[in-house]
From TrEMBL:
Protein name stated in the entry: diguanylate cyclase
Keywords: Coiled coil
Record's catalysed reaction(s): 2 GTP = 3',3'-c-di-GMP + 2 diphosphate
One Gene Ontology molecular-function label: diguanylate cyclase activity
Record EC number: 2.7.7.65
PANTHER family: DIGUANYLATE CYCLASE DGCM-RELATED (PTHR45138:SF9), REGULATORY COMPONENTS OF SENSORY TRANSDUCTION SYSTEM (PTHR45138)
Reported cofactor(s): Mg(2+)
Coiled coil: 261-288
A GO CC term assigned to this protein in UniProt: plasma membrane
GO biological process, one term: cell adhesion involved in single-species biofilm formation
Xref: Pfam families: DGCcoil, GGDEF
Annotated ranges, domain GGDEF: 382-513
Length: 513
């Protein structure tokens, strides 16, 4: 072999090596491309059948090693389809967004959704729906499903907790009905009936039970009104009787007096005539003996008439006196009846201003006094501190130990509150487990100390329920009347302070300037 041949062989060998390397590289590239196409077609799979078919063809062409020239129509076809798919995707995206928003809003309207679920839902609807791709909807849908679950669970708990009460429950109406029943003052003889109705309301907020309870209360009210009306009618009848008796006494007296005065007039006339005739006869008398006999006889008759007249006058006076006494007695009876009735009426009014359970002034009485104090403040600008007081976690007392225990607690706390304030302060039961205190002449800056005393007094009451020692605390929110206030704005400020006391841990006083 010549050098030249050797050289050519070497070159050929090198060329073959390069070609092999190129073929290997190309094969590798085709493999990568077909794997990519396979992955792409798998990820697009299911979106559109025609596109799926095209992608399958493309994959098998790549596997077979089809000429690149032949891929071109396949790729064009797929591009058009992908473009169409893009439009379909974006329409789907819009529709998905709309249906998530709609179902979220619908969920918001569902009653009894737990507070954390409600908050999560509000945030989701307000801030999380601005997504660009369909995939981003997945965590949102996941959240929405969680909130739906929470809502369903809470509904299911309510239903299984009280299986006998049925699904139509209305705790708000129950609370309002109870508060109204607590505002009313009933007579002693219906106290037990009222107590059992209140118990029913607090144990059961089923609409049917509430309706029956409301009817029960209305029946009792109607009965009391009828009784009150009857007693008013009775009073009027007896008043009328006494007036009639009085009237007939006066008529008797007048008649009697008139007949007596007729008799007296007759007698007076007789006496007058006698005196006149005596006068005439004395003129005519001719002798002393005749005159004496005449005067003697006439004087006897005259003196007996005079005695008769005196008797008659005395009898007249006595009869008149007796009659006046009778009339006086009747007037006294009348006066006593009217005074008693007035007393009853004012007791009734007083009762209307008193809370039946705690015997503290009620909300109506507070409103009166509050407006009065406000009016005085407007005129005199004196310091008046207003405090709203609320028993902490009172619901749990009712829930754990029963409504009667709750009632007793309210009575004990009301008494303790009344004892721990000044005589000049005014405390009322505002409703439920809420009390209001007015402290005239007390600047807010100096109110903290006496209010602390009120708070610790209540905290140290040794309550015991079902053999268990229980500590009960109160929260207080206080403010002072200030220039430009209305009763409402002052009250709202005290209420805000109470809210702050509750939110910052309860068993405390918050002041609001
Ligand atoms: N026993 C009884 N309970 C009453 C009366 N008036 C209102 N209530 C109950 O008082 C409870 C008040 O509960 P909430 O308003 O939830 O307040 P709370 O449990 O005291 O909790 P916080 O105020 O947040 O500390 C409700 O359960 C009412 O039914 C009443 O005259 N007697």
């Amino acid at each position: 072999m010549t050098d030249n041949t050797e050289h050519l062989e070497k070159k050929l060998g090198q060329a073959i090596k390069v070609r092999k390397a190129l073929e290997t590289a190309r094969k590798y590239q085709v493999d990568v491309l077909s794997q990519f196409a396979a992955k792409l077609s798998l990820s697009c799979k299911g979106q559109d059948v025609a596109l799926d078919n095209q992608l399958a063809k493309f994959r098998s062409a790549l596997n077979k090693g089809m000429d690149f020239e032949e891929f071109s129509p396949l790729i064009d076809n797929m591009s058009t389809m992908l473009k169409k798919q893009e439009a379909v995707n974006s329409a789907n995206h819009r529709q998905l967004l709309q249906s998530i928003t709609d179902s979220g809003k619908q969920l918001q309207r569902v009653k009894g959704l737990p507070e954390d679920g409600r908050r999560m839902l509000r945030y989701l609807l307000d801030h999380e729906l601005d997504v660009q791709s369909t995939n981003e909807f997945i965590p949102i849908l996941d959240k929405l499903v969680t909130i739906y679950n929470k809502a369903l669970q809470s509904k299911a708990t309510v239903l299984t907790d009280t299986p006998s009460s049925g699904p139509d429950k209305n705790p708000e109406v129950a609370a309002e009905l109870l508060a109204l029943a607590n505002e009313l003052i009933f007579d002693e003889d219906v106290a037990n009936e009222v107590k059992s109705i209140k118990n029913n309301i607090s144990l059961n907020d089923n609409v049917d039970v509430l309706l029956e309870s409301a009817l029960g209360i209305v029946r009792i009210i109607v009965k009391s009104i009828a009784r009150e009306r009857q007693s008013a009618q009775g009073f009027l009848v007896s008043l009328n009787q006494t007036l009639e008796e009085l009237h007939s006494s006066i008529i008797d007296t007048t008649k009697n007096s008139r007949s007596m005065s007729d008799e007296l007039n007759g007698l007076n006339k007789k006496i007058e005539t006698k005196i006149k005739s005596l006068n005439e006869q004395t003129q005519k008398a001719t002798s002393m003996t005749e005159l004496k006999a005449l005067v003697d006889g006439e004087l006897k008759i005259l003196s007996s008439d005079l005695v008769k007249r005196e008797k008659l006058e005395r009898a007249d006076k006595e009869a008149l006196f007796a009659s006046f006494e009778k009339i006086n007695d009747r007037i006294n009876v009348l006066e006593t009846k009217v005074t008693n009735y007035k007393k009853r009426l004012s007791e009734q009014r007083f009762k209307n201003l008193l809370d039946g359970l705690t015997k503290l002034p009620n909300r109506a009485a507070f409103d009166d006094r509050f407006n009065q104090e406000f009016h005085l403040f407007d005129l005199q600008k004196t310091d008046v501190t207003l405090v709203v007081i609320d028993i902490d976690h009172f619901k749990s007392i009712n829930d754990q130990y029963g409504h009667s225990a709750g009632d007793k607690t309210l009575q004990v706390i009301a008494r303790a509150l009344k004892k721990s304030i000044r005589k000049s302060d005014f405390i009322a039961r505002y409703g439920g487990e809420e009390f209001v205190l007015l402290m005239p002449g007390m600047p807010l800056g100096q109110a903290k100390q006496p209010l602390e005393k009120v708070r610790t007094t209540i905290k140290s009451i040794p309550f015991k329920f079902k053999e268990k020692q229980v500590q009960i605390t109160i929260s207080l929110g206080a403010t002072q009347f200030k220039e430009g206030d209305t009763p409402l704005s002052a009250f709202d400020r005290a209420d805000d302070a109470l809210y702050e006391a509750k939110n910052s841990g309860r068993d405390r006083i918050c002041l609001r300037e």
